[in-house]
Design a protein that fits this description.
alpha+beta; 3 domains; DNA polymerase, domain 1
Length: 412
């Protein structure tokens, strides 16, 4: 025969109820009974706490604490999450799963990719990221403008349209598909990794567009380089000189420690674990770069005589390591009127092309640039008219830009 609620001795709000099963066994079940304080309603609530007294006491204590905080016990419970989100998986990847052989610059690029992907995919469950979701993201991204310092980047599209003041009408520069491609490549990598680890059953199929037809051939002319230098502060100038003279990547220059600089021999010696190519690289120090290094040495010695907190990094500003020159580079481009020049790749192309026009042997260029093959090296050489003119240095009237009198031309 079933009994009514009976107060458990010395425990406020805890009650027990005994009942008989169909098999004739008597059992006890515990309940928490108190008035809900949500919005002052003070409605009587009854909570089933199971058949174990100790567990029931612990559960009741939690309920009473939530009641004091004003919890709405009548609200629908939130559905429990099944699996992990993209942000949680990426966080685990960066903490525990990065390949120790991966180049530091590659890790930084992955972190930048995640920062871009997070607003869209961050809260999604990995199992909920489908091919259609990814394609929707890609389509949305290529319609968005490139943002810099919180404002859309604008350019003159050459249409000839002008505003009321007679100034050329500028249009927003949209994000290009290679940029989206690289973000999707990292997303695909993380999803494949989750599938390999059994976190999801299978990764969605994501086919990336080929970028071969969009190979960049932009190099900075001597005049553009000088204009950029003139538009920069001295700390940023020194980094630009290093990029122009060495074909090193931006992160390789900015992270460069003094112990890799062999000034006596005239080389920067980059170990395999420091560079993307995973092989030792030796870069000659040009006279222009040597002057920069001498200047940095003197500046840092002066600071060290006052304070012991001088960095071991080569490129510093006010004795502190420089972490980026992207903003300084973009501002200098605007001031100098230089367009469509990328900091990360184009200056490396510029340096290697310049070496080739100076007649430096290809094997020497490959060694300094870290290239593994002649094909890879050739891809970085982008000859323009001025490069051919400088390379041949032929003293003819045609090369010098003067017309040749047809009557004086020799016919064979």
């Amino acid at each position: 025969m079933e009994q009514k609620f009976k107060r458990v001795k010395r425990v406020a709000h805890l009650y027990e109820r005994s009942y008989q099963t169909a098999a004739g066994e008597w059992r006890t079940k515990f309940y928490g009974i108190f008035k809900c304080m949500w919005k002052g309603e003070r409605k009587r609530k009854v909570f089933s706490l199971g058949g174990d007294l100790r567990t029931a006491k612990e559960a009741l204590a939690l309920l009473l604490a939530e009641n004091v905080k004003g919890k709405d016990f009548g609200a629908e419970p939130e559905p429990q999450k099944q699996g992990i989100t993209f942000s949680e998986w990426a966080d685990d990847y960066f903490k525990n799963k990065i390949d120790p052989e991966k180049h530091a610059g590659g890790v930084e690029r992955e972190k930048r990719s995640f920062k871009t992907l997070a607003p869209y995919f961050g809260g999604m469950l990995l199992s909920g990221i489908k091919r259609s979701t990814i394609m929707e993201y890609a389509a949305k991204r290529i319609t968005q403008p490139i943002m810099r310092r919180g404002k859309p980047v604008e350019f003159d599209d050459g249409s000839g349209k002008c505003d009321d003041a007679g100034n050329p009408v500028k249009v927003e520069k949209k994000i290009q598909f290679p940029t989206v491609n690289r973000k999707l490549a990292f997303l695909r990598y993380l999803l494949n990794l989750a599938a390999d680890d059994g976190i999801i059953e299978a990764a969605p199929s994501v086919k990336l567009k080929s970028e071969k037809s969009r190979k960049r051939e932009r190099v900075a002319s001597e005049g553009e380089y000088r204009s950029l230098l003139a538009s920069m502060s001295r700390p940023a100038q020194r980094v630009l000189i290093a990029l122009y003279e060495t074909a090193m990547r931006a992160n390789e220059v900015l992270r460069l420690p003094w112990n890799m600089v062999d000034e006596k021999a005239g080389f920067i010696r980059l170990p395999a674990d420091y560079v993307k190519e995973k092989k030792n690289r030796t870069v000659p120090i040009s006279p222009e770069l040597r002057a920069v290094l001498y200047e940095l040495r003197a500046e840092q010695r002066k600071v060290s005589s006052i304070s012991s907190g001088v960095s071991s990094r080569v490129f510093t500003r006010n004795s502190r390591p420089m972490t980026s020159v992207r903003t300084a580079f973009e501002l200098a481009k605007e001031k100098a009127g230089v367009t469509d020049l990328h900091l990360l790749h184009d200056l490396r192309h510029t340096a290697i092309t310049r070496w080739a026009t100076q007649g430096i042997a290809q094997q020497a260029i490959m060694a300094a640039a870290g290239h593994h093959s002649i094909q890879q090296s050739n891809a970085y050489v982008n000859m323009k008219d001025e490069h051919l003119r400088d390379a041949f240095k032929v003293s003819t009237q045609v090369i010098q830009g003067n017309a040749v009198d047809a009557a004086q031309a020799v016919s064979y």
